[in-house]
Design goal:
Bound molecules: zinc ion
Distance between the termini: 52 Å
Structural class: alpha/beta
Strand content: 15-25%
CATH topology of the largest domain: Rossmann fold
CATH class of the largest domain: Alpha Beta
Number of domains: 2
Helix content: 25-40%
């Protein structure tokens, strides 16, 4: 590659593997694919990444409901995403899984570097958390004790939905 060739990096969100892909997954991936294809046509050296986030409470809960370990569940569900990208003729250059050894190694090393620099400290935080939405909400956000997005309700025990 000539030294002066411009580079372009694009990624989709990495998708949770709690369930099969839906239209939102297809939308963001097709949109990223359009941009990647356009930049290639313009002569850029493109790297287009997509992948799956295989950690989190949603994945753990979905696995438990199917009597699988989270890894077994992720190994099965990730194939739905990979197959859909084939069907949609997506031109990604990389597919990352957060359970890949290489990914885990880099995350571990990066977090350790930050910790060594004093950039990470352990504190506790509590708040209203919606597992289906994977986010915290403040008192002003909630609607009658329910998540404003999905309407899940606080269990009243841990300040979490
Ligand atoms: Zn919610």
């Amino acid at each position: 590659m000539p030294q002066n060739k411009k580079t372009f990096y694009i990624t989709t969100p990495i998708y949770y593997v709690n369930d099969v892909p839906h239209i939102g997954h297809a939308y963001t991936t097709v949109a990223a694919d359009c941009l990647a294809r356009y930049k290639r046509l313009k002569g850029y050296d493109v790297f287009f990444l997509t992948g799956t986030d295989e950690h989190g409470q949603k994945v753990e809960k979905a696995a438990k409901e199917k009597n699988r370990t989270p890894q077994e569940h992720a190994d099965l569900m990730v194939e739905n995403f990979k197959n859909l990208w084939k069907v949609l003729n997506i031109t990604h250059d990389g597919f990352i899984r957060t359970t890949d050894d290489g990914h885990k190694k880099i995350v571990r090393e990066t977090l350790q570097k930050l910790r060594n620099k004093g950039e990470i400290e352990k504190r506790s935080y509590s708040g209203m958390y919606c597992t289906p939405c994977e986010r915290f909400w403040t008192d002003k956000d909630v609607v009658n004790g329910n998540c404003p997005d999905c309407r899940a309700r606080d269990s009243g025990q841990t300040k979490m939905w």
